Amino acid sequence: MTEAEFRNALAWGMGVCAFMIVVSLARYRQRGTSAYIQAASFAVMGALLYAIRLELDRSVQIAIGVVLAALFVADFVSRSGYGPREPKA
After folding, report:
1. 70 in helix, strand or coil?
2. What are the CA-CA distances from residue 63 to residues 5, 49, 56, 67 (Å)?
3. Are the CB atoms for 38 and 24 separated by under 8 Å?
4. Could you state, in order of their start, the residue ranges of all structural domains in the chain?
5. What is the pLDDT of residue 80?
6. What is the pLDDT of residues 6-51, one digit of tens each?
7. What is the average per-residue pLDDT within 61-66?
8. DSSP-assigned states of every residue in 18-69
């Protein structure tokens, strides 16, 4: 894979992340808070791809990856029901 093809693949990945942010926020009524967490995860993933494309320092990329991992854990917790419970009507 050439460098131009790699940059093109990163650009496509950022576009997919942007599309998935819109899809996640559109499904807010079904998913609740998990939709916001998922949208934030896609935003951070897009930022990570952008950081790779700009060839930022490796420590910046690792920091973005740590934030992404924390959002994945938060998404898992919000979907599994271990987090705070919403009151039943």
Report:
1. helix
2. 26, 13, 11, 6
3. yes
4. 3-80
5. 80
6. 999 999 999 999 999 999 999 888 877 888 999 999 999 999 999 9
7. 96
8. HHHHHHHHHTHHHHTHHHHHHHHHHHHHHHHHHHHHTT--HHHHHHHHHHHH
